[in-house]
Design a protein that fits this description.
Layout lengths: L6 H16 L4 H22 L13 H13 L5 H21 L4 H8 L16 H8 L7 H16 L3 H5 L6 E2 L5 E5 L5 E5 L2 H10 L20 H15 L13 H14 L4 H8 L4 H10 L1 H9 L16 H9 L1
Antiparallel strand pairs: 1-2, 2-3
Helix pairs in contact: 1-2, 2-4, 4-5, 7-9, 7-11, 12-13
């Protein structure tokens, strides 16, 4: 008879059967769920003095789950967003168990009743045109590494690609003819084509010269594909060097995703319609793209300037009509 009380078999089914076979989630999403459980199980084992392979479902009680969430924030220094992300993964596990094991419905309801913490939405950071130009001028093409670094920054700015999309671009994904473009594989394995500027196409042509179609476009010194961490370090190093000539960068926290936001805002300022930008960035919902229209201060200032407010001296002053007041009081 299958043991339905141990949490180990349920976690194995959740990771392999549900995330992979049923939902076919992206590798990064699977890794996020796995990392959550990797942190949770040792915490439960220490709290219950039970070996990990002997933990039962009931060992994950609401009180212990609250303790785990507090442990993430106080001892591991996680932010509220990370705390909520971990809780969302545990909610999914509880729902998976509850749907397949009626005797655990009460446990499932108790776990899923633990709420997410409300968190303030941070202001989305983006770079103005002079700041972006300063980043692009840091690296020169006199060395192979400098040419690659410049190509990475130009590609991220041109396409608005996510870092994970950029590191998986191969030479076969590039079309460098008369109408240059690149094929990007985004979230949910949704593919999209993004046009390339002539200067970007020319830069990439020199970068991939002599490489096979299956080779990664962006590679490190050993010829291996750049990692997400590698691109993050590249952007941080570039920003540090650019701050000497552009002091405004010192007040901004710049990451590779900031270049994605910068691409969207600059497209919006250039007059590109919001639905085209949605397709450009690979957003599923138009509501996600609308945030760029809300944060662009230049567009708000132009809209305010178009409002023709009346002059103060043209506003007629209120005067009391005694006849009208007498009429109203007589009613």
């Amino acid at each position: 008879m299958t043991d339905r009380t141990g949490i180990g078999p349920w976690i194995r089914r959740f990771l392999l059967e549900h995330l992979v076979a049923e939902r076919n989630l992206a590798r990064n999403t699977q890794a996020s769920y796995r990392d959550t459980l990797t942190l949770l199980l040792p915490f439960l084992s220490a709290a219950t003095t039970t070996p990990i392979d002997r933990l039962a479902i009931e060992d994950l009680s609401p009180s212990r789950l609250r303790g785990f969430l507090e442990h993430l924030e106080t001892e591991r220094g996680c932010r509220v967003g990370t705390r909520n992300q971990r809780l969302g993964a545990i909610h999914s596990l509880a729902k998976f168990v509850g749907l397949r094991s009626p005797e655990h419905l009460a446990w499932c309801a108790a776990i899923r009743a633990i709420p997410f913490k409300k968190t303030a939405t941070p202001v989305m950071a983006y770079l103005d045109k002079p700041e972006m130009d300063a980043l692009l001028t840091v690296h020169s093409g006199r060395t192979a590494q400098g040419a690659r670094n410049h190509a990475v920054l130009l590609f991220l700015y041109n396409t608005g690609a996510r870092v994970d999309e950029a590191v998986h671009v191969t030479v076969a994904d590039l079309t460098l003819g008369s109408s240059p473009s690149v094929r990007l594989l985004g979230k949910g394995r949704k593919a999209r084509s993004c046009p390339l500027w002539p200067v970007t196409a020319e830069t990439l042509t020199r970068l991939v010269l002599g490489h096979a179609p299956h080779d990664a476009v962006f590679r490190n010194r050993q010829g291996r594909p750049l990692t997400r961490f590698g691109i993050y370090r590249l952007v941080q190093h570039t920003v540090t060097r650019a701050r000497a000539s552009t002091p405004s960068l010192a007040t901004k926290r710049v990451s590779p995703h900031t270049l994605r936001h910068t691409c969207a805002v600059h497209l919006l300022r250039a007059g590109v319609d919001i639905n085209t930008i949605r397709a450009w960035l690979g957003h599923v919902s138009l509501n996600t793209t609308h945030i760029y229209a809300e944060i662009d201060l230049d567009m708000k200032a132009k809209a305010l300037a178009r409002c023709d407010l009346p002059e103060a001296d043209t506003v007629k002053r209120w005067r009391t009509d005694p006849n009208l007041m007498s009429f109203l009081k007589a009613l």
